[in-house]
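hiii, so i know i said id send this last week but things got crazy w the move. better late than never?? heres the sequnce for the chain we talked about at the cafe, plus the structure i predicted for it. fair warning i was half asleep when i ran it
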Amino acid sequence: MATIRIPPVLRPSVGGDREVAAEGSNVGEVLHSLVDAHSETQDQIFGADGDLNRYVNVYLNDEDVRVLDGLETSVSDGDTVVILPAMAGGGR
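okay and structure toks below
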C-alpha cells in the first residue's frame, strides 16, 4: 500500500486528512484508488480525458512522475505519492 500526501487544497475532499493510504501497482491506480474512495477529488486530479490535469504535479518518492513513466510509474508498498497543485501568479 502506498501513502498519498494530500495538499491543503484537497484536504476538505478527503475529510481533512494530510495523508491517505491507497492500493495500486502504479501511480495511476493509486490515484484512481483515491478517487474511488473520495469522488470529490476526481475533477481536481484528472481531466476529462483521464490524464492528470495540467496544473497538477505528482511525485513518487520525490521524483516527478512526468520524467518517469507518468501514470504507469510502478509503485511499491511503502512508497509515497505526493500531489502538488501548480502555483500560479507572478502578476503585478
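btw The CA atoms of residues 43 and 64 lie 21 Å apart. thought thatd interest u
miss u guys!!
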